[in-house]
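Hi R.,

Here's the input for the guanosine-5'-diphosphate complex you asked about:
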Amino acid sequence: MPPPEKLIGIVGKTNVGKSTLFSAITMIPVKISNHPFTTIEPNIGIGYVRIKCAHVDLGLPSCNPRTGYCLNGNRFVPVKLIDVAGLIPGASQGRGLGNKFMDDLRQADVLIHVVDASGSTDPEGRPVRPGTYDPVEEAMVIQNEIDEWFWNVVKRLWESKIQKGLLSVTDQVDYLARNLSGISVTKHHVIKALREAGLENKNLKNWSLDDLRIFSKALRRVSKPIIIAANKADIPEAYENIKRLKEVFGEELVVPVSSLAELVLKKLVSENAIRYIPGDPDFEIVDDKKFSPRDLKALEIIRKDVLRKYGGTGVQILLNKAVFDILQLIPVYPVEDINKYTDHSGNILPDVYLVPKGTTARELAYMIHTELGESFLYAVNALTKERVGEDYILRPGDIIRVVAAKARR
Ligand SMILES: Nc1nc2c(ncn2[C@@H]2O[C@H](COP(=O)(O)OP(=O)(O)O)[C@@H](O)[C@H]2O)c(=O)[nH]1
Ligand SMILES: [Mg+2]
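And here is the predicted structure with guanosine-5'-diphosphate in place:
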């Protein structure tokens, strides 16, 4: 079984730029033969986190990705995204597309919350003059909506059985995890939330409503952490708002983003008009003559108001943060030949697995193939050529060969 696939949900109210961000993320600026579809379903697509490819430090000229792509030593590794239906205040009570929204949201492991940092959309998503609406307020309203939805689910569950004292203390955790699995809550999440809420030693049937509220909030934070995309950063009014968003939600949880700039740049790359690698702090014009004076001016604005100001469009930083900092995944490269760093057919570094921090060599073996896990003997660290045992904890960038009694067919 390949590594457990995580799903990144894009949420936010209407007209903040969710679909623009989704397009910008899922668009591939180069032709790649091995992954022609970037959109799986209308609102489900593939984006790519960017890492430095291991082939660079190995002194190899290139690699052969089976999925994703590699550009100038930058490896782009696929991750799955869902563009959640637009959220309006009251959605947790079923207002607007409330139910559709909750349905999309259930499956997500981390949420990118797109906020109109320029303040140019009102609470219902109608366009207004930039600076009119407060994005801090917007972010609070939406996150509150998500917490409310969680609260409703948790409360219903508590009232149905736990409150009546029908379960033993240990069964309570299992019961919660089992019945919340539909919203991607695991036992690990429940335990962590109990600890964060300081409630791990209190029998659930003795909880007050306040206890339950605190737990519900902690569970939401743990099982669906939220990172804010402060979008429309290209509009000057966004600058001060982004500072305030960071003050309120934390520096590391707010990323200034211009989805529109990223989309424009990627389109121009696909037309061979500019050179730009997603995540780069600048681009290069291939041929001036391909642009009208007006387009050249627009490009200069992107350079001045986005790239120079924020160090990039922010889209790549956002995705990398969601995957590496928030979901705490690490990249590892399974190979079969530890000298050539290839699979059995000679492909160099064909795969990058994004695995949870703390994954062991044996768990990796299971992800590659069940049989490899079952008959695991040892693994070899291809960089050091050292053998490691089943309990070896993988490190970011490890290149690993698994040796098993039963060879893969
Ligand atoms: N200036 C600016 N406009 C943007 C940006 N992202 C989206 N927009 C515009 O905002 C409007 C709504 O975008 P859309 O992606 O449809 O929003 P959604 O309803 O959240 O999916 C469109 O007119 C976009 O062109 C951005 O980064 N900067
Ligand atoms: Mg949309």
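One thing worth noting: DSSP finds 13 helices and 15 strands in the chain.

Cheers,
M.
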